[in-house]
Amino acid sequence: MRLDDEQESSHYEVQDGRGGGGLGGGGLGGGLGMLLPLIGSRFGCGGIAVVLIIMVVMGVNPLSLIGGGGGGQQVQTQKPASGQLTDVQRVSLKVLGSTERRWADIFKAQGQQYPAPTLVFYSQNGQSGCGAAQSAMGPFYCPADQRIYLDTDFFKEMETRFNAPGDFPIGYIIAHEVGHHIQTITGEADKIRKAQRNASEAEGNALQVKMELQADCYAGVWAARDTNLMEPGDLEEGMRAAEAIGDDTLQREAGRRPVPDSFTHGSSAQRMQWLRKGLDTGDPAQCDTFKGAI
Questions:
Q1: Is 137 within a domain?
Q2: Which among 11, 180, 206, 253 is least buried, having the fewest CB atoms inside 10 angstroms?
């Protein structure tokens, strides 16, 4: 990506978690264990299954969930100067700044103001408005506090474990989470959550997949509208990243047969398709995954 001329977003925080364990310690069990009931209530057993599969793929023992965590976790939130951030954090903020400008333009054209989300960096253990944040969960958006939570070590996992190297996956992942922010501030997310409460598990999972694919499409819209952003090879990097984190690919990586009814993010083919649609059209109106087949 061409990011040299991009202005970094000022909407960020850095959390310093004290008292939590690493990926292999008791802290993981306590934090993610508290989140499993929330995941189950929103996405059903299929959602919990996908989280456990991701843990296995990332080398985390799911049995650690039973162990309870070691003590209470204290989290300090700071906003250090940009010069004190790591290179990957600054790249992330350049991407976030780019999304802010693109979505501000889209909202302005509709006579609205765009309220930007905040990006929260943490390492292994953090705290969100939706509960404990754990590296094994990957990046996520919390609608309760309108923040994106990111352990940048996830990008190393994308490169080494999922064979999705390059800088465009950073942009794709952050822009995808921004897509969930768009769904929240437009009220789309609330409508889907209400529909999920009256749906079967399979129906609820299918609605969740449509939300995730729409966020993928929104990520493509961002990249399409930042005309100076993409370099040769970026499209291929984005497609590899979308393929790597499809539910069917993750289930195969975990040694399981893919079960479509358990999908909560979409298959690799679906994720590539909707990312590409956003890239091809640059039009968020074309990202309506809730009409017709996906």
A1: yes
A2: 253
Residue 141 · residue 117 · CB < 8 Å: yes
- Determine the structural domain holding residue 225 and report its residue range: 12-287
> Region 38-42: what's the mean pLDDT?
45
Q: Choose between 32 and 101: higher pLDDT.
A: 101
In a domain, 293, yes or no: no
Asked, for residue 5, whether it belongs to a domain, the answer is no
- pTM for this entry: 0.81
Considering its fold, how many domains does the chain have in total? 1
